[in-house]
Amino acid sequence: KRTPIEGGKRERRKTEIVQELMTEFSLDLLLKAIKLARSTYYYHLKQLDKPDKDQELKAEIQSIFIEHKGNYAYRRIYLELRNRGYLVNHKRVQGLMKVLNLQAKMRQKRKYSSHKGDVGKKAENLIQRQFEGSKTMEKCYTDVTEFAIPASTQKLYLSPVLDGFN
Q1: Hey, which residues does 145 pair with through a beta bridge?
Q2: Which of 51, 53, 83, 90 fits as disulfide partner to 78, beta carbons 3.0 to 4.6 Å?
Q3: How many CB atoms lie within 10 A of CB 10?
Q4: Rounded-to-integer distance, Cα 20 and Cα 83, Å
Q5: Rounded distance, CA 48 to CA 11, Å?
Q6: Which residue would you say has higher pLDDT here, 63 or 115?
Q7: Is the pTM of this model over 0.90?
Q8: CA–CA separation, 38 vs 32, rounded Å?
C-alpha cells in the first residue's frame, strides 16, 4: 500500500526530485528511474509554478485551531469558517486539516465509580464465618433490598431478618 505524501501528491514530489537532479542527469534517465511519465512530469512542473489556491483557507484553519487551543476538530472549524463568511465544504476542511497535520485533542472519558472510599464505621467480624447458632436469636443476619415502584418516584425497601439457629 502506498503511503500518502502530503495528501497524495506523490507525482508532484517526484517532479521536485527530478528538478533537483536535472543538472547531473538527463531527463529521460531520471524519468525512467523514477517511473514517471513525461506528460505527468510536465503537468506537475506547470503546477509547481501556480500559487496554492488553499493558502488563505489553510491560514484561517490554523488560526482557528490555535485560537481554540487544539480543541476544535473539523466539524467545529467548518462551522467557525461559515460564521466568518467562508463558503467551504466540511470534507475540504477535513482534507486540509489532514494535510496540515492538525488533529484535535480527544477528551479522556472517565469510568464511572460510585465508590466513595471508607465512609462510616466498619463493624467488627464477630461471627468469624460461624453462621450456625446454638439458640434462637443468637445470630441474626439481614440485608436491604431497594425496589422502585413503577409510575411513582417512591421506593420500597425490604429488609428480611434470618435467624442462624437451625
Answers
A1: 158
A2: 90
A3: 15
A4: 43
A5: 11
A6: 63
A7: no
A8: 9
